[in-house]
């Protein structure tokens, strides 16, 4: 039986299988679908326009999806763009029912987090680890309820859309390992909940925005963006020491020569001392025992001459 007939399906997780197929566009016909997890499979091909009015979490990471996403791709994703519903009753705080709770693994702030229960106010989008190209859709800025956004490890080009400055609820942003260029939007520095950002391994240029959110980042968040600069970046990376040049100053050369001379004297002394000690020992032995062959070498010769004369 096809899942398309489960009109009340809210949660679908087929993570870590070997599903080799294109994106299941028919899922957009499920009016109650809130969580979609397709990560770590062999899905491939482009993703056409889809409408997920109730979708709150989508994870299609680590597949082989490719192609460009249209600029208006996220226009009809209503649940991520409208104000979230406040759930005052404890039984309604989490997805599922009182006898069953949905669970999943979500990449958040660079770490894989296992969610035993999924809070209903969570909004997350993970398209990482695919082959998406072209510009990041400007309509991403409509998803004002988004908490986690991961577009890393793709082939996105162009600028980071300034519309991301509208994501006032965003806590985690990862656009690393793409081909993004241009400046980092200054408005990101004013997002008060944004505590994790990774822009590394792109082609970004210009000034790094100021603001408390950026000052809390690690210097590695900007790695491999040679065009980035500014006081904020210097402050963030102030504890990272640049390697010194191999050129030596005259003072250091003189110090090395003095050290070499000292070492030469030490080596000479080390060589002389055993020789002197050996000489002293040998002299002591010769003087103490007075061997006849050493002390009277001429006596033997004299005796030989005397005996010869007698005969």
Automatic annotation (TrEMBL):
It is a single-pass type I membrane protein. It holds the Pfam family LRR_1. Keywords: Cell membrane, Glycoprotein, Leucine-rich repeat, Membrane, Receptor, Repeat, Transmembrane, Transmembrane helix. It is found in: Cell membrane. The keyword Ubl conjugation does not apply. Belongs to the RLP family. PANTHER family: LEUCINE-RICH REPEAT-CONTAINING N-TERMINAL PLANT-TYPE DOMAIN-CONTAINING PROTEIN, RECEPTOR-LIKE PROTEIN 12 ISOFORM X1. This is Receptor-like protein 12. It comes from Brassica carinata.
């Amino acid at each position: 039986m096809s899942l398309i007939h489960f009109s009340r399906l809210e949660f679908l997780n087929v993570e870590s299988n070997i599903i080799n197929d294109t994106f299941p566009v028919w899922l957009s016909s499920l009016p109650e679908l809130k969580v979609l997890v397709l990560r770590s499979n062999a899905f491939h091909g482009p993703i056409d326009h889809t409408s997920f009015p109730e979708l709150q979490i989508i994870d299609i990471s680590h597949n082989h999806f490719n192609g460009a996403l249209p600029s208006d791709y996220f226009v009809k994703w209503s649940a991520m763009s409208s104000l979230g519903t406040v759930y005052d009753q404890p039984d309604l705080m989490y997805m599922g029912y009182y006898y069953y709770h949905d669970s999943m693994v979500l990449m958040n702030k660079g770490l894989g987090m296992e969610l035993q229960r999924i809070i209903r106010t969570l909004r997350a989008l993970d398209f990482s680890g695919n082959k998406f190209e072209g510009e990041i859709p400007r309509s991403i800025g409509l998803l004002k309820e988004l908490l986690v956004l991961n577009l890393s490890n793709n082939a996105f080009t162009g600028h980071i859309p300034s519309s991301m400055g509208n994501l006032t609820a965003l806590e985690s942003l990862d656009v690393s390992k793409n081909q993004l260029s241009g400046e980092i939007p200054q408005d990101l520095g004013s997002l008060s909940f944004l505590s994790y950002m990774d822009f590394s391994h792109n082609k970004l240029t210009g000034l790094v925005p100021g603001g408390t959110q950026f000052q809390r980042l690690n210097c590695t968040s900007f790695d491999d963006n040679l065009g980035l600069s500014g006081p904020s970046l210097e402050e963030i990376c102030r504890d990272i020491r640049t390697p010194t040049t191999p050129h030596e100053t005259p003072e250091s050369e003189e110090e090395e020569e003095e050290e070499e001379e000292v070492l030469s004297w030490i080596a000479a002394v080390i060589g002389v001392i055993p020789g002197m000690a050996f000489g002293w020992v040998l002299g002591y032995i010769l003087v103490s025992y007075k061997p006849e062959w050493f002390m009277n070498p001429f006596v033997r010769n004299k005796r030989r001459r005397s005996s010869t004369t007698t005969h």
